[in-house]
Amino acid sequence: MAVRNPTCIRRPGSMIRFVIDTVDTEEDTAEVTIMARPCGVSRVEGESDYGTVTVYDGLGCLLDEEEDDLVDRAGYAMRIEDEYSGDCRWEIISLCCP
User: Fold this and answer.
1) Which of 8, 36, 70, 94 could, after both became Cys, cross-link 76 (CB 3.0–4.6 A)?
2) Strand, helix or coil for residue 65
3) Residue 90 forms beta bridges with which residues?
């Protein structure tokens, strides 16, 4: 078990709504465009100048489809601490069905 990362404390800006742009099923990640942020938050942790961020499939089942079928799908991600590395990252918590 990793030591808790103090920068992962839940705070405003810890959830986003997104649309998938590209997927890397080998790494269980997707590059997404942020469609909505929490009220009063103009930029979230890890967000690029283009309004994109990398999200992770920590469960290993949400990005378990053909890459072409996942592009343009919408979902939600939450900034949480990875239980193995202790790193904070955007992890998918919900993904719309096709």
Assistant:
1) 94
2) coil
3) 55, 79
Q: Which CATH number does 6-95 carry?
A: 2.40.50
What are the residue boundaries of the structural domains of the chain, listed by start? 6-95
**Which of 53, 3, 48, 2 shows the shortest CA–CA distance to 30?**
53
Tokens coding 61: 């089942």
Rounded distance between C-alpha atoms, residue 83 and residue 21, angstroms: 26
Query: What is the tens place of the pLDDT at every residue in 55-85?
Result: 999 999 999 999 999 999 999 999 998 888 8
Which pLDDT value is given to residue 8? 53
For 30-50, how does the pLDDT look when each residue is reduced to its tens digit (9 = 90+)? Answer: 999 999 998 888 999 999 999
